[in-house]
Amino acid sequence: MSVAKSITLSLDGMGGDDAPDIVLDGIALARKRHPDVRYLLFGDEAVLTPLLEKRYKTLRDIVTLCHAPDVVTNNDKPSVALRTGRNSSMAQAIRAVKDHRADGVVSAGNTGALMAMAKIALRTLPGIDRPAIAALMPTQRGESVVLDLGANTECNANNLVEFALMGTLFARSLLDLENPTVGLLNIGEEEQKGRNEVKEAATILRETVGVVNFAGFVEGDDIGIGTVDVVVTDGFTGNVALKTMEGTAKVMSRFLKEAFKSSFLAQIGYLLARPAMNRVRHRTDPRRYNGAMFLGLNGIVVKSHGGTDGLGFANAIGVAVDMVRHGFNERINTELNKLHAQSVSSEVHAI
Amino acid sequence: MSVAKSITLSLDGMGGDDAPDIVLDGIALARKRHPDVRYLLFGDEAVLTPLLEKRYKTLRDIVTLCHAPDVVTNNDKPSVALRTGRNSSMAQAIRAVKDHRADGVVSAGNTGALMAMAKIALRTLPGIDRPAIAALMPTQRGESVVLDLGANTECNANNLVEFALMGTLFARSLLDLENPTVGLLNIGEEEQKGRNEVKEAATILRETVGVVNFAGFVEGDDIGIGTVDVVVTDGFTGNVALKTMEGTAKVMSRFLKEAFKSSFLAQIGYLLARPAMNRVRHRTDPRRYNGAMFLGLNGIVVKSHGGTDGLGFANAIGVAVDMVRHGFNERINTELNKLHAQSVSSEVHAI
């Protein structure tokens, strides 16, 4: 019998619109699901100490306060944050992972700065050219992984193949799927359609059997339908698709709200249907899907939505815990080696 | 007082999943809104004649049947359709525009083949490098134009600038807006974010004042919110965004339907709220937004969704009628000249 290793996460206490409250609320909620996890909380002592004291009973034995005087704001350019943010809560929380004082870091702060700092401090995993941002999205069938959500505005075929591999392992860890299906986002399902790098990536994925369960091209509507478990695309397209989904869902909710208010009968109808409507709201609640993972770095880095609340932050903590528990980064190494071995043998074969 | 010119449209009678029925139903419905429009209906006489006879009273004085023995199917590659489809209903309907027998063409057939055939037969307008596909989408504020929806998988900055100009004129014609706002789709609103071609296009649009009312970058969720009247992007991203919207709307409707069926009370609630729910359905009905225009060709070409019905096809006919009435292509020439004059003068200024 193996003894479960205890997990420590480092948290950026000052990142996010309503930080540090969302972070402390998040820890309190996460404790119920993951009682054994410990936290290093980085931020301004003067701000954090009184807030921690208020939650003394819940948090005292699991949170260690670590003073970091500076804050990276949402308006800081990544390059500026890198130069001037060494003493920020974000940079120090990342450093704790680098120094093996923590198993992973969670931040609701500036995405670009977090990626830039994490890349420099942790470096990419051997064999991975570019890290990618991955997250779960609600679908008709359940949940799917989508990546890249914005780390790379342009990608070549090899980047997309690496994303397919990392997405596969991410889906295994988070969705408990043995052999998740992977689709490349394209503008048609036919082989001749789409961008060259997408077509090339498809060719490579078709040839490297056994590593990625490649299901071919998928289109924008397949994300919501849940046609595949992992949707792979470049960071520009993925970011637009993610935000388009969010926007469409918001607009439809708004239309519904207006409709339910439009007549007395509709208002009564709403009251009767409310428990059912709440289930729909729960099913598509963005807080449930909060926690985007920076895949391909030599350390677990999870980005929470900046505008989330305690429940959302607790879910982001949950993503980091799952990734540590599943030994995500160790698995990437193993699978990359398999993939490279196949590429080499298929090149040899081609000669 | 000017006498309104009578309009003739040529229709591909065989394109679309349920053609030719959707086409004939579409003409019958369009007649109510546009009683003066005449139609050249291209397709197999043996198939169309009996169907026309059934609708003899409604259609006899506005439809002229033109025999075209062949059909371009949805599975035909554009290159194959070009080589072998000369006698197809699609090719002949396009040719009627080229020969000035019709003012515009509407088809619910294969998009790639329609674009390829239209490009070769009609050519692009002088000064336009690449045609783009544009359509209206429902937003919280009303409707917006989005382009390109799939004609160009990759675009440079100049292509995007041309799309911004064509989208402006399209919004003026279809939405009756004097000075529509234009946004470039990007993955952040800050100037330093995004792809190079998008950033370059923004610089050009900021410098050429007066032609395009440029409002800066927008993100995926701005499409649904309706932040700007015209959203400009490359055909890959635009197609993914369009289909992601459609998919999200479908999934949310499905979730709602399941919720309303989940309990007796919810079912009663649904019955009471049904008129209000129907208004939501109407507001987001894809048939209302059917009819994508191929902008930048030397002729009006409108693509109907293949899976639409008569009502949807009638709306596609309406788009073509609007474009002809507004003298869309003549206006593009005038505005392009203004734009080029400005670019030249700003280059001179730079020296």
Helix content of chain A: 40-55%
Largest sheet of chain A, described in full?
11 strands, mixed
Tell me the number of helical segments of chain A per DSSP (H or I, 4 or more residues long).
Answer: 13
Order of helices and strands of chain A: EHEHHEHHEHEEHEHEHEHHEEHH
N-end to C-end Cα span of chain A: 48 Å
Please state the average pLDDT score of chain A: 90
Q: Would you write up a description of this structure?
A:
Two copies of one chain form a homodimer. Chain A is α/β, with parallel strands linked by helices and about 350 residues long. Chain A has helices at about 20-35, 45-55, 55-60, 80-85, 90-100, 110-120, 155-175, 195-205, 220-225, 235-260, 265-285, 310-325, 330-350; strands spanning about 10, 40-45, 65, 105, 130-140, 145, 180-185, 215-220, 230, 290-295, 300-305. The first copy, chain A, folds into two domains: about 1-130 and about 295-325, Isopropylmalate Dehydrogenase; about 130-290, Isopropylmalate Dehydrogenase, CATH 3.40.718.10. The termini of chain A are far apart. The first copy, chain A, is built from 13 helices and eleven strands. Helices cover about 50% and strands about 15% of the residues of chain A. Chain A is globular and about 60 Å long. In chain A, about 55% of the residues are buried. At the A-B interface, helix 9, helix 10 and helix 11 of A face helix 9, helix 10 and helix 11 of B.
